[in-house]
Amino acid sequence: MRFSCLVAVLALGATWCVRADEPSPPITVVSPKPQGIIATGINNQGSVIGFEWIEEEERPGVIAQVPFYAKAGEITYLPLLEGYTATFPADVSDGGLVVGRVSKPMTPGVRTPLLNQAFVWDEDGGIRGLGALEGDFTSFATGVSRDGRRISGYSVGDARVRACIWNLEGEQWVGTALPHQDRLASNVVAISDDGKSVAATDGVFGCLWTEDDAGSWTREVISEPGALIPRAVNNSGMVVGLTFAGDGLQHAVIWTREGGYLRLGEPEGYRRSEASDVNNQGVVVGMMDGPAGSEIGPDPFLYEKGMLRRIEEGGPMFSSATTINDQGQVAGILESEDF
């Protein structure tokens, strides 16, 4: 059978702390396995989470999407939380704490409590559910701080969807809603490595929540209505993501406190793009694509020091860069003609 979704990890060298007149480090491609891997996150140690596509023994020709955590090339398959049928890892801390959501089948016309539930997993403690905020009925975890002590995500209740955080207090995870003026309108609640900045869409506005020294959170509108759907935020509060322009296509955008809002122009021939992640050196990665049905794209891009370039080093089948860490390692999609 044909299959076209192999994700690899790209090692961009030892550091991105280079002078403006120095070239970026060379890119090399590494992966837990040579094919059939979809990476969804990477930490600063180069550990990867995601999915491996595995043919089911009982049903030849049927491919299962199996979630995993890979450390130093050794793959551990993530378990199911009791009562659930699927596990979706979203992010991983430097200590190997994996966060995401678990789900179970829906019964039409019946509300199932915790149909989706945020979870944490590590090698020592196994998988545990986080529940939902008080009065809500489902939850999602989408990011984790590098020290593994704060998780970002959202909680859903009657007529409300709230961005929230969970803090590790002793041995317990305690959830808190962030200040809102409307309901959450994005499916990613991004968190910075230090856990002090969170970005998402509140109603129609791209927003940045920042924690002060006293532990209080301030909500700040950082875009015009509909202009920014955040996908990532770094320790300096730089937010990257996408917007939908008048052409109905998505386009990569960034926001910084110093420079404000900026749409990244696609190179000639490309029609759409998305900024997926940014590291603490301000290096942005993402995907750009040409017109539907054309031979242009999809291709990975890197934006650094005001310059956007196509990542050539991954070869012609490398189609999207999804995340980057402070060591310059990037996770992305490397397509394959054959499974």
Descriptive report:
By secondary structure, the chain is mainly β. Helices cover 0% and strands 50% of the residues. Strands 2-1-28-27 form a 4-stranded antiparallel sheet, with no helix packed on it. It has a 4-stranded antiparallel sheet with strand order 3-4-5-6, with no helix packed on it. It has a 4-stranded antiparallel sheet with strand order 7-8-9-10, with no helix packed on it.
Task: Please state the CA-atom Rg, rounded to the nearest Å.
Answer: 19 Å
Fraction in beta strands: over 45%
Order of helices and strands: EEEEEEEEEEEEEEEEEEEEEEEEEEEE
How far apart the termini lie comes to: 7 Å
Please state the overall shape, judged from the principal axes of the Cα atoms.
Answer: globular
Question: Percent helix among the residues?
Answer: under 10%
How is the biggest beta sheet arranged? Answer: 4 strands, antiparallel
**Are there runs of 5+ residues with pLDDT below 50, and where?**
1-24
Number of helices: 0
> Which structural class should the secondary elements be placed in?
mainly beta
Q: How would you write the strand order of the largest sheet?
A: 2-1-28-27
Descriptive terms for the model:
mainly beta; 28 strands
Brief rundown of the structure:
Helices cover 0% and strands 50% of the residues.
Topology, please?
Blueprint: E1 6-11, E2 28-30, E3 37-42, E4 48-55, E5 63-71, E6 74-77, E7 86-92, E8 98-103, E9 116-122, E10 126-129, E11 138-144, E12 150-157, E13 160-169, E14 172-177, E15 190-191, E16 197-202, E17 205-211, E18 217-221, E19 229-233, E20 239-244, E21 250-256, E22 260-263, E23 272-278, E24 284-289, E25 299-304, E26 307-310, E27 318-324, E28 329-334
